[in-house]
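#onboarding

Welcome to the new folks! Below is a worked example of what a typical request in this channel looks like: someone posts a single protein sequence, and someone else replies with the predicted structure as tokens. Don't worry about understanding the tokens yet, we'll cover that in week two.

Example request:
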Amino acid sequence: MKKLLLSVMACYALNAGAQEVPDNKNYLYLYSDSIVYANRIQLRPDFSGYWQLRVDSRRIPLDQVKFFNNEDGFFANTKKLTFARTSQFSERIIEGKINLYQERPYDPFSYDRNYRHGYGYRPGRYPAVDMSMYYNKGYADLKKVNYNNLKSDMADNPESMKFLNKYRKSASRSKIMYVTAGASIIAGFVSFLATGTGHNDMPSGFGFDNRSSLKSPNFTASYVLMGIGVGMAVGGYAVQSAGTGNIENAVDAYNRQLR
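Example response:
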């Protein structure tokens, strides 16, 4: 009987730990894996301009909070991924098996202007997915959005991997185009200087009549090289932007799979 009771308690503990925290409530999810429910949660600047997290009548240190949910949205602390290791919060813009987060800048002026909406004030249309965003699964630590990270977390979904491989190919092409653009622009600039310097070094003075040879320098080659460089740069950006859309497609495909 005692063994049966222990088995039942163990199963209950596992189920309780696996339950999803309801997002229709205001709560903090701490780094200690503790959950603190509240009636009101606000992230706002104090009188000195420093951000503070107020939970009902209490003030909670930002460094203790991994996630928080309030009426403005769901937010994740990105302090482990920032250069200065300071607490900043990104807003969850896609929820699913893969959650996607967009960084929210700390701008007291913007907060005051949009005070009715709070820190989670969001535009009507979310921006396209890019490499400055973060993601995670469930309540796991955040990761940067990049090919290697997503590959390790999406390896079990062939459709997502197809989109990720498309992104990798486009990223490689855009990198080659950027390198070519830089080389062409530098070559064009060097050619421009060489042509101008060579024209100014023509001999003059007694015994030389330059009136018949006073011609404008021909910078055609320089302009062509610079034009190629600019064109390659624009093309590289277009390829990169189009390829980044495959990241969003990969996330959508992963979130559509059967749970």
